[in-house]
Amino acid sequence: MEEVLFALWIVAIIGPLVWSWYHKASVAMGMTLSLLFGYIVQLIWGWTLGSAGLNELYLRIVMIPALVESGHYHTLITSGFAHSWNDPLHVLGNIIIIALVGIPLEERLGRGRWLISYIIGLIGGSVAWTLANGGSLNPALGASGAAFGILGAYLCGWPEDEVYFPLILIRKWPVQFIAMFYFGFEIFKAWQVYGLSEVSHVAHIAHFGGFILAYATLPLLKKGIEWEGEVELVDMSQENPFEGVDELVKKLHEEGDEKETRQAWLEEISERAKCPICGDNLHLKKMKIKCNSDSSHLSWP
């Protein structure tokens, strides 16, 4: 039974990531589902195996500094996909950051670079905890290091972006405010633990490690990136090469002075129209409609 549940956990965390990558969907959303499905399987572990069986499975994936030092390096990664099965707020807090902040960051970085940045934050948190607790048997688990890595990377790259986030109120907040709020609160909690010797089951050092390493490496990942939101608007001629979308093009001319509105209408046109050269489908890239088969066929407007 333990082997079956372990295999089910592997499928639960890998499946959404593979699906999102194959279908060119949001990897950040795939990661959110991966953590959620993995946690559901962990609940099944707890309900069916009890504490003893659960601990046997946890030893395979949870990061324990003493075991890492003896060769269990895989737990530096696997621990980021496991959460305390009896603490739903643990996984919920990480999922909120990854979904609400991670998805806009993915729009900035792109799918591949976002995934690299996520893994950097995850490893940064795991390594920081291991180095700070050498030889210890205190376990650490959860995606908090990676979640803090997302905040650190976004703060470094695009601090003035605004994203919807439930911080006091559900509204758009500047990324720099969200990131510094979390980082500052984490400093306060760490001071309570390490300065005042209060008891805590939170790996504050891991949070710092993920945040700082992702922040420091973001400039390398950011090189060469152009985001659609930074592309200058160009004048549109009244003529267009498409058939059957005249009303959409008219709306584009009437309402396309703002970037967000222009992008919405361009996306609608790209979904409805076909390439006038080869008849293939179209896509929108950097505020221009291009042919899926050959970008030289079309670049409009």
Helix vs. strand class: mainly alpha
CATH class value of the largest domain = Mainly Alpha
H and E string: HHHHHHHHEEHHHHEEE
Under CATH, the topology of the largest domain can be stated as Rhomboid-like fold
What percent of residues adopt helix (DSSP H or I)?
55-70%
Measured by DSSP, the beta-strand proportion falls in 5-15%
**Number of separate structural domains:** 2
The major β-sheet equals: 3 strands, antiparallel
How would you describe the shape? Answer: elongated
CATH superfamily of the largest domain: Rhomboid-like
DSSP helix count? 12
What's the gyration radius in Å? 23 Å
How far the N terminus sits from the C terminus, by CA atoms, comes to 59 Å
- List segments where confidence is low: pLDDT < 50 over at least 5 consecutive residues: 226-231
- Write down the overall mean pLDDT: 85
- The count of DSSP E runs of length 2 or more, i.e. the number of strands, is 5
Indicate the CATH architecture of the largest domain. Up-down Bundle
Write a concise keyword list for the protein shown above.
two-stranded antiparallel ribbon; Rhomboid-like fold; mainly alpha; single chain; elongated; 7% strand; 301 residues; 2 domains; 62% helix; three-stranded antiparallel beta sheet
Provide a quick synopsis of the model.
Helices cover 62% and strands 7% of the residues. It is mainly α and 301 residues long.
Architecture overview:
This protein is mainly alpha-helical and 301 residues long. The chain has two domains: 2-222, Up-down Bundle (Rhomboid-like fold); 229-300, no CATH class. It has twelve helices and five strands. The protein has helices at 2-22, 27-61, 65-69, 75-78, 88-100, 102-109, 111-132, 144-157, 175-195, 204-222, 246-255, 259-272; strands at 162-167, 169-174, 282-285, 288-291, 299-300. The strands form two sheets. The chain has a three-stranded antiparallel sheet, covered by helices on one side. A hairpin with a 2-residue loop joins strand 3 (282-285) and strand 4 (288-291). Helix 9 runs antiparallel to helix 10 (204-222). The termini are far apart.
